[in-house]
Amino acid sequence: MTPLERSTKTSPLAASVTTLWGVGGERAKQLEKLHLLTVEDLLLHRPRRYEDRRHFRAIAGLRLDAAALTRGTVVALGLKRYRQGAKSVFELVLDDGTARLHCRWWNLPFMEKYFAVGNEVVVFGKPLTLKPRTMDHPETEVVEGGEENFIHFNRIVPIYPLTEGLPQRWLRGLIWRTLESTVAASRQSAANLPERGGLDEKLAALCRGAATWPTRANAIRMLHFPEALEDAERARQRLALDEFVELQKQIQQRRRNFESRAQALPCGGDNRFIKPFLAALGFTLTGAQTRVLREIRADLRGRHPMRRLLQGDVGSGKTVAAACTALMALESGFNVALMAPTEILASQHFRNFTRWLEPLGVRVELQTGRRKSGEWRVASDAKTRPPLLDTRHATPVTLTIGTHALIESGFDHPNLGLVIIDEQHKFGVAQREELVRKGRYPHLLVMTATPIPRTLGLTLYGDLDVSVIDELPAGRVPIKTFVRPSDKLPKVWQFIRERLAEGRQAYVVYPRVEESGLGGLKAVTKEFDNLKKQLAPFRVGLLHGRLSSKEEETVMVAFRANTVNVLLATALIEVGVDVPNAAVMLVENAEAFGLAQLHQLRGRIGRGAHESYCILISDALKPESRERLKVLEETADGFRIAEADLQLRGPGELLGQRQSGVPRFRFGDLVRDLDLIRQARDLAARVGP
Hints:
Elements: H1 25-33, H2 39-43, E1 49-52, E2 68-82, E3 87-95, E4 100-106, E5 120-125, E6 129-130, E7 133-136, E8 139-142, H3 149-152, E9 156-159, H4 168-189, H5 201-209, H6 216-224, H7 229-261, H8 274-281, H9 287-300, E10 307-312, H10 318-331, E11 335-339, H11 343-357, E12 363-367, E13 398-402, E14 416-421, H12 429-436, E15 443-448, H13 454-459, E16 465-469, E17 479-484, H14 489-501, E18 505-509, H15 524-535, E19 540-543, H16 549-560, E20 566-569, E21 582-587, H17 595-602, E22 612-617, H18 623-634, H19 638-655, H20 674-687
Parallel strand pairs: 4-7, 10-15, 10-16, 11-13, 11-14, 12-13, 14-15, 17-22, 18-20, 18-21, 19-20, 21-22
Antiparallel strand pairs: 1-9, 2-3, 2-5, 3-4, 5-8, 6-7
Helix pairs in contact: 6-7, 7-20, 9-10, 18-19
């Protein structure tokens, strides 16, 4: 039985931590707070950092605001209460023979019981002042004698996440003893410590063949008690590889299961719609669009239903690619559903697709929570736009465009051959699947103008084939981006008035609909009157998610017609607004938005022949906030921006709460482990099911 894997209930690793020496009821409750229920949980409890206790810095050598490890003897301590006992500060003074160090804990009076005069104490922290040398809330550990002292000193020592009342030294000793007993047990039953760790034996053999990888058993030992700091990182990588391989095996097995039971609908088309559609566009597709459409057509003609992710930067021409994909299915006699996250985007798609497809004999319907195409339709003018082909014998097929209303139980779409989901990151995985279940294994194309970092593409979207439109249409004018503090706003408003006087239009975006009192963020409803005065005599329109459909449409019609010159809005406009005459985007409190969201907002301009400007107003003091905004100033490449956003915000904040199915890893890091994920995908394919 492998002692370092999650296996059957008879495995030593599945045993409760209460079976370990020294773990009673109280300690078990403390370990449970850290989600450490079994021996395996304990052995996979990852240190949050390490201390090199072979080398201590003398107290006299401590530097201001520089984290350091030192040690000394307690020469004085005391607890002071004030404000009638409601507040307190506990302080102890350490001396190592070179100088004294004051350690303080505010409003933690129970710290007093952990120390006594004469204790030798190890301290890790940053001095706040050197006169006297003082650390607030440092990490500490009292030096104790005993036979296990070698675990805690004269080596690189793990520092674990803890909970109240659980000593660092006790947990470190428990993990050491558990590792030792596991090794001893394995020696009684086998010559070498087994290394599967929940992975297939074939994978263990593959990993053993790579001389650079430690075995899983050695990796766990190196994780807790490395001989060098580089060993700890190598151990993390080895254990992360296990996690990534397991994930990739699941993804690949899911794909195999899907393909074994799903037969593709024949949706390759015959070009009778696409040829006249392309001829009427008035421009030629880019090479990237043509390449992507070849990949999609091959899928639609294949044995298995298409499951493809289409990535393309803002303005790269994904909508036209989606139209061509829809026409392939429509030519084949199947209906198509296109789901968008907002009514504004769904309405824009409805206008565009109606203008493009109805002359071909294709009916285009709109289905949202608040309106349907029978109530709101862009009429075709037969005198100015005659049909492009004789539609008397066309197959009665329908493209239905909608929002979340498409996945409601009351909506039925018979003969569904293709599902297209636009701005897929706005939907959860479950919502995507709900729409697909409206048909019998229809083809699926999901699209995003928010490029997906490569690590997320290989994990969260690993079951999808990926196509990338990496070329912008010719003639696009680069957008100039500037980050400015709020004290520059008078000059910014003057600049915007000058652009409006030239006949251009502008967007002004604030983070909130109404003032909430949080963080000083501006709200569109409060600033509306101020903006009208600021930009008079130019007309300002207001758009946010609390307006009715009729109010939204009235504002958008006026803005498209340039009877409204400035659109004051929330981030609602990040998708679905396409006004070529708009040449200025002003975003206030820019630090309140994610990088990808700001890039999407910037993509609302630069859609015509006019020079365009994006101005980001921020008084952010945090260096990371300024660094994020600087990325937008330096590049317009959405893929670079997505990688930077992942680096700066992490996958959880980047994806938000809408996206379900985000994998959680103990050791894997979606920010920096791209090479490991690629190796894992290859290993999983070689290992097989």
